[in-house]
Design a protein that fits this description.
With 290 residues, the chain is mostly helical. It has helices spanning 2-34, 52-58, 61-92, 99-111, 114-125, 131-138, 150-177, 182-190, 195-206, 208-224, 227-232, 244-254, 258-287. It is built from 13 helices and no strands. The longest helix is centred in the N-terminal third of the chain and has 33 residues, at 2-34. The chain crosses the membrane at residues 7-29, 71-92, 104-126, 153-175, 261-283.
Length: 290
């Protein structure tokens, strides 16, 4: 009887396992293998070059620039999107007029395609006529080419990412806030606890599991969200907004250097794995407390 149940269980899991291995694990293994081979060109087949692609990678100035840009991008988008999401969740987690409208307005940027979001923000950034320059003109400031100059291009696309993903993270925080028993707030009010103390001593520790979940997703998004780069800057000007995933696309599909693109992909996955594991170890003690 137990053996039959195991057979049924594996048969039920089989379709999902086939898709998982066929479209996730096998491509990942093939990508790792391809990183040790050269790219085939015409009639010239690929040859085994060992660590040649990795040696080229660490001598590639554009890769170094993309890594630095991605580090800055992640260092800004991760804490900023989490903080903004938490503030929005706290704001709509109370009885105020137009609550449903506010929640919908905060969440709307998340459901918009990032390509559409990027086009909307291009109008905001339009030199001289965009929203930001119109506001700046009221205070006597001149126009700025936000996405067309190296000093501001990366920060311009970073702002788009924060605006786009904060609404999604707000939903998770709002769900976490609704699980906190109202009796805790009532007891704190009887003791004369200030709102800030209640948040720091009660709310924040109780929503730490959600914070861990959101931070891991924000880290993944910092490396995988590049749709707006295609529309707004294409990595320019002068690689000022070049991110790692867009560089992988550039090498793999524009220059058809599949071996080098596989190497870049392996490095990106390794970075994400290390950062994800580090986040779990750092936040684990604060999440699982007694």
């Amino acid at each position: 009887m137990i053996k039959r149940e195991w057979i049924y269980a594996w048969l039920l899991l089989l379709p999902a396992l086939v898709l998982l291995f066929g479209f996730t694990h096998l491509p990942a293994i093939q990508t790792l293998i391809d990183s040790f081979w050269s790219t085939p060109r015409g009639r010239r087949p690929s040859v085994f070059i060992g660590l040649g692609n990795y040696e080229r990678l660490f001598a590639d100035p554009i890769f170094i620039r993309a890594m630095v840009n991605n580090a800055i991008y992640a260092a800004i988008t991760i804490p900023a999107s989490i903080a903004l999401a938490l503030v929005m969740a706290l704001f709509v987690h109370r009885r105020i007029a137009g609550l449903s409208f506010l929640r919908m307005a905060y969440f709307t940027p998340t459901v918009l395609p990032l390509i559409a979001v990027a086009n909307i923000w291009l109008f905001f950034y339009l030199p001289g006529f965009g929203l930001f320059d119109q506001v700046r003109a009221l205070f006597g400031f001149g126009p700025v080419n936000w996405v067309g100059q190296p000093s501001t291009a990366l920060y311009a696309v970073t702002a788009v990412s924060i605006w786009n993903q904060a609404g999604l993270f707000m939903i998770f925080y709002l769900a976490a806030l609704q699980t906190i028993p109202p009796s805790l707030r009532e007891a704190a009010a009887l003791e004369g606890t200030s709102p800030w103390t209640f948040f720091r001593r009660v709310t924040w520790p109780l929503i730490m599991p959600t914070t861990l979940f959101v931070s891991v997703n924000a880290t993944i998004n910092a490396f995988r969200m590049v749709d707006h780069i295609f529309v707004m800057t294409q990595g320019g000007p002068n690689n000022a907004s070049m991110l790692l995933l867009y560089y992988i696309y550039d090498q793999g599909f524009r220059y058809w250097d599949t071996g080098y693109a596989a190497t870049l992909t392996v490095v990106m996955v390794a970075i994400l794995a290390l950062v994800g594991i580090g986040q779990f170890f750092v936040l684990d003690r604060r999440v699982h407390y007694r």
